Amino acid sequence: PCFSYLNSSSLKGAKQRMLPVDCLAFFHKSANLSSVIETLKIRAKQQLQNLSKLVQEDETALPKAFHFSLLPLQHFPITLSLPVPSDLSKLGAGEKIFKPTREKLHRIFNLPMDRPFLRLAQSIKFDKPSATYGRLKNVHEGLPPSGVTGGQVHLVQGDYDYCHYMQDKFDDDGWGCMYRSYQTVVSWFRNQHYTALPIQSHEEIQKMLVRMGDKPDHFIGSKQWIGAMETSILLDEYLGVSSKIINVTSGHDLQDKGRELAKHFDT
User: Fold this and answer.
1) What is the 3-state secondary structure (H, E, C) of the chain?
2) Distance of alpha carbon 119 from alpha carbon 127, whole angstroms
3) How far does Cα 200 stand from its chain's mean position?
4) For a Cys staple, 235 with which of 53, 113, 241, 251, CB 3.0–4.6 Å?
């Protein structure tokens, strides 16, 4: 179904807009067909009114309905009609555009402000299976205990892809360790549906660093290493994620950072 909004008082010179209607409603299993149809008609009318309002506010936008699950905080998903810009050619651009709206909705629905619930990438996809990349996931699972007496285990929460040397038919043996670590971190944000941005290739990573002015032009296509500092600015630029670098001069000094690292994984 679609809704045609005429932005003119007459048919002459009017513009026709085709808008997708995507309604979500819940029914008791004993509900009859007529009540289901009537409820869906009401939901469709409400959504069309919301979409038409968005078209009137911005004729270039492409309004679309998105469904979001708020589990475990709420049992039922919510539907939001958002004016997706027509020039939204890059995935992730909408996340920045709608950030003020998302923050406002977090306050309305009393959602935590320290984690996202309403990013476009987190919307429910009823007709699309989860994407897989042919990589191993969560390789830490199934590892035997370390054998440390009285030791406690603090693990990453959520799924991630295991990115390592020589994957994707690309030879980065001996220099690509931090590129792969960065790819693994990005995969965690993808698997949690915090972003729809793809995992970048080595060349794409290098081009971004050059574009930001961190590296010279000849860095592109090279086999030069990157470190924690480059990874930090990449995450900030690509995902808008701030990070903290913990410096240790030797393995012995790592024991002094145990509590800080445990807190990171537990919160």
Assistant:
1) CCCCCCCCCCCCCCCCCCCCCCCCCCCCCCCCHHHHHHHHHHHHHHHHHHHHHHHHHCCCCEEEEEEECCCCCCCCCEEEEEEECCCCCCCCHHHHHCHHHHHHHHHHCCCCCCCCCCCHHHCCCCCCCCCCCCCCECCCCCCCCCCCCCCCCCCCCCCCECCCCCHHHCCCCCCCHHHHHHHHHHHHHHHCCCCCCCCCCHHHHHHHHHHCCCCCHHHCCCCCCCCHHHHHHHHHHHHCCCCCCCCCCCHHHHHHHHHHHHHHHHC
2) 18
3) 14
4) 241
Q: 202 near 178, Cβ under 8 Å? A: no
Exposed, middle or buried, 163 (CB in 10 Å: 0-12/13-18/19+)? Answer: buried
Which residue type, as a one-letter code, is found at position 129?
Answer: P
Q: ∠ CA 95-163-94 to the nearest 5 degrees?
A: 5
Going residue by residue through the chain (267 aa), what tens digit of pLDDT does each one get? 445 555 555 556 666 777 788 888 888 889 999 999 999 999 888 888 888 888 888 777 778 888 988 877 777 888 888 887 665 445 455 667 788 888 998 998 888 888 888 888 788 877 655 554 578 999 999 888 888 888 888 999 888 999 999 998 899 999 999 999 999 999 999 888 888 788 999 999 999 999 999 999 999 999 999 999 999 999 999 998 999 999 888 888 888 888 899 999 988
Is the previous residue joined to 72 through a cis bond, with omega within 30 degrees of 0?
yes
Apex 104 CA angle, 99 and 107, nearest 5 = 130
